[in-house]
Amino acid sequence: MEVLVQWFSHHLAQFISPEGAVFIISMIPILELRGGLLAASLLKISAAKALPICIVGNIVPIPFILLFIRQIFKWMKKTKTFRGLITKLENRAMGKSDQIKRYEFLGLLLFVGIPLPGTGAWTGALIASLLEVDIKKSSIAILGGLFMASAIMYIVSYGIVGNVVH
């Protein structure tokens, strides 16, 4: 992930402000808030400025995923070109859904909040949508998870990694 963050940071910051680059990185699946905070640290953006940018950037796609992803996937599965990819994405997301199925709100909160590979708001929203978890409940759990992940990634990006990089 660090290589991707460095690549996006370097290339986006050539065309837009460092803050804009961090915002966009925070919206990208896989990178999300974690990548945004790492990028902010690399681009020497203060944590006070970076945290809200990353949180908002990561939140922007979530309502669209929760509301529309099942319909989009259903439509895309009708095409031969995307059927395999969509099935693979659904299977991969559902393969990580055990704790969300079992604990619903708390499971989703922890899934989004503990920054491990393959977890985060995008995947959490996808799983919540596919499991048809109540949108209010899933939105609150994802937001809470983002705040938890923000705190953890702040320590990693500006503490541990920040001290090594700077």
From TrEMBL:
Any one Pfam family match given in the protein's UniProt record, by short name: Sm_multidrug_ex
UniProt keyword annotations, A-Z: Membrane, Transmembrane, Transmembrane helix
Transmembrane domains' residue ranges: 20-43, 50-73, 105-128, 140-161
InterPro entries membership: Sm_multidrug_ex
Protein's UniProt name: Small multi-drug export protein
Taxonomic source organism: Blautia luti
